[in-house]
Each structure stands twice: as C-alpha cells, then as structure tokens.
Amino acid sequence: MATVKRSLMEEWGIAGKVRILQTRQQHGEYHRLVQELQLDGERFQRYFRLDHAQFDELLTRVGPRITRLDTNWRSSISAAERLAICLRYLATGDSYRSIAYSYRVGITTVGYIIPEVATAIWECLVSEFMPVPKEDWMTIAEEFHQHWNFPNCLGSIDGKHVVIQAPSKSGSLFFNYKGTYSIVLLAVVDARYRFRVVDVGAYGRRSDGGTLASSEFGKALQNGRLDLPEDRLLPEAEHLGCQPHVFVADEAFPLQRHLMRPFPGSNLSRRNRVFNYRLSRARMIVENTFGILSAQWRMYRRVIGTSPGNVEKCVKATCVLHNFMRWTVESPAGERQAPDPVDLQPIRRVGTNNATREAIHVRETLASYLSAEGAVPWQDNVA
C-alpha cells in the first residue's frame, strides 16, 4: 500500500509540475504582474531598475542574441521574458528556484537564461558604455579637478568583495580577510560615478594591491601601455614643472608614478594631512559608486549561490548597466583661495624600495601644491 501511495504521489508531482509550466502564459509573473506594471512607470522601474524606455532600448540591443526559435514540441520563451528574468535576478538576488516558481519556468531553464542574458548585456553594451578611455583621458582629468579639486587625476581605484557561496573543493582561494567567500570586482571610476575599467573574478584571498598587479589594467599601467596623457603643469604652479597624471587609491595599493596613495601613519604634518584629505575626497568616488551599484542591484546584498563563473558574468552585466543608466551626474565645483607657501620635504627611500624615488617625488610635489597654489577654503578645517 505504501509503495502504491508513493508511486501515485510521484506521478501526481510530475503531472503537477508539467501543469504549472504549461500555464506560464496564463499565470506566469511576466504575463500577469509585469504586464500590469506596464501601466505604472514608477513601479515598473522599481521592479526592473530600468524605466520603460531603457528596458525597450536594452531589449532592442540584446534581443537578437537571446531570441530562440520555437520547436514542434514547445514555444520558446520570448526575448523580452528572458531579459525580464535576468534583470529580476540582478535586481533582487533571489534564488533560481524562487525566480523559476514566480515565472513558471524550469529551474534549469533559469540557470541557462541568467548567465546567457548577462553575457549578452555585457557584450552588447561594453563597447559603447564602458570603452577603455583614450582620447577622453583629459576630459576625465578636467572633471576630477572641477568637481573634486584633485588635479591631473584620471580615476579612482578600489576593489569590492562580491560575497558568494563557498565553491566546492576550492579550499581557501575565495576566503577573504572579512571571513566570507568572495570574488573581487576591481574598478576604475571617473568623476561622474561611471565605471571606466573593471576587472572581475580575482580570488577573494588576494589583497587589492595583488589583484591590481595581476589584472590586465594593472599590467598595462605598470608597463606604460594605457596611452595616458603627457605630463602637465599644475594650475597656477608652473614653477613645480610638469607632473604626471595619476589614479588615486587607498593604502592597500602600492605607490607608483601614476598611482597615488595616502601618507602612512597618524602623526603627520599639516601638509600631509591636507594631502590625505584631498586624495580621500577624490578616492571616495569609487566607494560611492559601489554603494550606488549595490543599492540598485540587490544581488550584492546577498550571498550569491551560483558558480564563480556565473557570478562574474552577472557582475559585469550590472557594471555596464550602471553606465547605461547613468547619463550625466552634476556635482558642485570647489573654489580656490590665495596660496600659503610650504617648503618641499626631502625625498627619501621608503622601506625596501617598494615605491620608487620618482613616485615619492610626485606625491611630495602634489602634497605641496594642494597646501599652497591648489588649496581650497575648507581643507584646514577638515584635515
């Protein structure tokens, strides 16, 4: 009797599953709730994070890549519904199972759709909305100077740990200093909170400096293959000579000719405290951008339970979607005041020459400039 009962339950379970999937076009979330949201622009944007126009434009771009043909046995899931499933996953971070239940599709189907659509989003948008800067390096530098009062700055660099479920048999490769498992999103951000370069997928156990050194961007920066602008005079400081363009980062990164980090220690001179404050003010742009990203795409606020490869695809998709959605960001520019002369501190070797003499000289010059010709009215009160 028990065997017969179990057999009937299994048969009923299979039949029920088929019946649920077959009613997708009548009761599935895309065909019911999403269609109702079409009439409410605000709720539509909260649901997908994109408004109607952005969703339609994105669908136009990725639709040809994600469209599938009908077969003799079943109708294919439309490109719009496939895009909706992917965006909903990125916007919520829900499990594949919960997405499958609400959209009335198979769990395995969701597992195919999300990484496939995420890859299509990245490949269709990256060349237009996240190209590696070339001719526009100078525009980025001017915007950093105008909005964040840091001259010759080409971007803010930092790494973000994207928390994932511990991959099978991975040991401690993904285990980070925070006590979680993660992959690293290394990003270069411009003055308008837009990603300019991203490197995704480094093991969570690596430091930010190690992630930068092993990334393609870090290698290109070290080897001089980024086509950075020529050295340039600092505004109103011709006597300091031409100075290189730099990226700003925190103390986890190395000091290099084109990469500035704060002065170490707590017992610092006024000039060095001012430099650290001004550098931190420009560097916070990347942390603010990470905050906007995780607020927009809530998958970052959960432990992502897919493979590291799929997580990498989803992270790339959210970064390029962030740029796609972000047209312009206006920020008030700071003002200048009369200089207060400060002498240059002597150049000295640091540690085991981890930073070159030239890099130290660049930081010292910038520190002197920001306390004199490049000072802003409020810096002494803050620093």
UniProtKB/TrEMBL annotation:
GO terms for cellular component: nucleus
Q: What cofactors are annotated for this protein?
A: a divalent metal cation
Instruction: State its location(s).
Output: Nucleus
The protein's superkingdom reads: Eukaryota
Record has Nuclease as a keyword:
yes
Give a GO molecular function annotation for the protein: hydrolase activity
Supply the alphabetized keyword list. Hydrolase, Metal-binding, Nuclease, Nucleus
* Pfam families assigned: DDE_Tnp_4
* Ranges for domain DDE Tnp4: 157-323
* Keyword Nuclease attributed: yes
InterPro entries in UniProt: HARBI1-like, HARBI1_dom
Give the protein family: Belongs to the HARBI1 family.
The name this protein goes by in its record: DDE Tnp4 domain-containing protein
